[in-house]
Amino acid sequence: MVVVSGKDMIKEVSTRAVFDGRPDGLFHLMRQFGKKLGVVFNDGTSWLNTRRVVLKYLKNFGYNTRHMENYISEECRALVKLRLSDAGKPILVNNMFNITIVNILFRLVAGKRYDLEDEKLTMLCNLIMRVFRATDMSGGILNYIPYIQYIAPDLSGYTEIKNIHVTIHGFLRETIQQHQQTLDVNNPRDVIDAFLIEKVQSPDVSFTDEELQVVCLDLLEAGLETVANTALFCVLHIVRNDDVQRKLQAEIDEVIGPQRAPTLSDRTRMVYTEAVLLESLRISSVAPVGIPHMALDDARLGNYIIPKGTYVLMALYDLHHGEHWKEPGVFRPERFITKDGNLMQDEWLMPFGTGKRRCIGEGLSRSELFLFVTNILQKFRLKIPDGDTLPSAEPVDGVTLTAEPFHVIFEPRT
Ligand code: HEM
After folding, report:
1. How many DSSP H helices and E strands does the chain contain?
2. Which residues contact 105 (CB under 8 A, 6 or more apart)?
3. For residue 290, what are the contacts with CB-CB under 8 A and spacing of at least 6?
4. Which domains does the chain have, with CATH numbers?
5. Residue 44 CA to ligand 1 centre (angstroms)
6. 226 CB under 6 A from ligand 1?
7. Residue 99 and which of 9, 37, 299, 340 are 20 to 30 A apart at CA?
8. 3-class secondary structure, 301
9. Ligand 1 mean position to 364 CA, how many Å?
10. 361 CA distance to ligand 1 centroid (A)?
11. Which residues of 43-71 are buried (b: 16+ CB within 10 A; e: fewer)?
12. pLDDT tier for residue 206 given thresholds of 50, 70 and 90
């Protein structure tokens, strides 16, 4: 395994086809029937084809369009309503965005939404959160000593990760079967229907049931933890920095006002809010080493020969906390604002990766984060309960980074 650091090397690895592979270790493939399937842990022509088709179907059902904005706004209204119902009480915020995020994705993928306190979905989200804590992106001991699954299945985490994926796949299989039973080939309702119709109409080029299940799993796993943890860190830095909260609310009051629902078109006039989101993406770097790439052949990189089959991790957390940034540990949105008050993009910021394997969820994530923050801060002042210490900004390790548990009081703004 090689860890690549620095803007130039990370860009080079991300843009050379020879590094477009994905690892094939036990940890990475046990979630997908031991095979390279889907988008995230797949490569070659099968990956290219599946990625293209998934993006096409997502777009057909409203991805990155006004429909998607409507789904996010609807979920924000539900979230604000829930927080109004428990206003003034300390809320454990660590899982607060989970069902909201799944609902937005599942409107496109499976055409349905769940109540924000739905027990089955809460359990499912908790399982996904647990699997992301069980190891890290390298795949840990399960990848390097795979036969440990027979010697110490419990101690190595194998049993837990396997059982969790059995449950998640059971849920996805059930969702796909419900679609099969009600399928109308002339009226596709969502991404799952589109895949099933392709299967009926062109069986020779179609995707298998396992492939469809892994595509759903990819979207669920890649799209849930990352956004939920970035939103969580956003809340964390807002409650740790009262001046940030005051400036955000001043901008919301000026551009949106107290009543009108925030929209994505407000973004161009809300430079400070956009800067807070960029700073949250930088400082939290929830995908600290991206998703591992793999060398598909022997390749020269700088002064080194990287042998075929080597896993290549990108030191994104390091990139976002390195010398380029002044006082990298300080949450300072102003670093993304020019002297003239415009938003400044910085090429050292790459939370979604770059190149052909770049994240497909960047547009969705940025829209979600903007609407989460503006909807919540329009209606509430966020406070740490009396007697609680400030939550720590130190991340908790795993496949993604998260925060230690902490409580927040949502105080309605008058
Ligand atoms: C703040 C939120 C997010 C962050 C920070 C993030 C970050 C990343 C990163 C670093 C990669 C790896 C890029 C590489 O391999 O070079 C990635 C890939 C991916 N992301 Fe995201 N992501 C986020 C949200 C989402 C969402 C909402 C979705 C679902 C729609 C999603 C779906 C994917 C998929 C499918 C891939 C694999 C792409 C491929 O291998 O071709 N991500 N993401």
Report:
1. 15, 8
2. 219, 220, 223, 224, 364
3. 137, 313, 314, 316, 353
4. 25-275+333-412 (1.10.630.10)
5. 18
6. yes
7. 37
8. strand
9. 11
10. 6
11. beebbeebbebbeebbeebbbeeeebbeb
12. low
Burial class, 356, CB count within 10 angstroms (exposed 0-12 / middle 13-18 / buried 19+): middle
Render the burial of 119-157: b for 16+ CB within 10 Å, e for the rest. Answer: eebbebbebbbebbebbbbbbbbbbeebebbeeeeeebb
Pair 61, 108: CB distance under 8 Å: yes
Residue 336 is classified by DSSP as G
Q: How far is the CA of 224 from the centre of ligand 1 (A)?
A: 10
pLDDT in tens, 216-238: 999 999 999 999 999 999 999 99
Task: Give yes or no for residue 230 CB within 6 A of ligand 1.
Answer: yes
- Ligand 1 atom 1: the closest Cα is on which residue? 227
**Closest-CA residue to 183 (of 212, 158, 161):** 212
Q: Which residues make Cβ contacts (< 8 Å) with residue 358, sequence separation at least 6?
A: 14, 352
Whats the size of the chain, residue-wise? Answer: 414
Kindly state the tokens that stand for 248: 């955000």
Residue 211 to residue 108: CA distance in whole angstroms: 18
Query: pLDDT tens across 46-100, in order?
Result: 999 999 999 999 999 988 899 999 999 999 999 999 999 999 999 999 999 999 9
Section 355-370 average pLDDT: 97
Query: Is 359 known as a binding-site position?
Result: yes
CA 233 to ligand 1 center in whole angstroms: 18
Tell how strand 311-314 and strand 2-4 pair up. Answer: parallel
Query: Residue 374 pLDDT more than 70?
Result: yes
Angle between helices 44-60 and 191-201 (to 10 degrees): 120
The preferred substitution site among 106, 359, 369, 402 for testing ligand 1, maximizing ligand atoms within 8 Å of CB, is 359
Judge whether residue 144 has pLDDT over 70.
yes
Tokens matching residue 218:
């990819």
Q: How far apart are the first and last CA of the chain?
A: 55
- Beta bridge partners, 311, equal 294
**CB of residue 220 inside a 6 A radius of ligand 1:** no
Measured between alpha carbons, how far is 212 from 33 in angstroms, rounded to an integer? 12
DSSP 344: -
Phi, psi (rounded to 5 degrees) for 277:
-70, -40
Q: Does ligand 1 come within 6 angstroms of the Cβ of 287?
A: yes
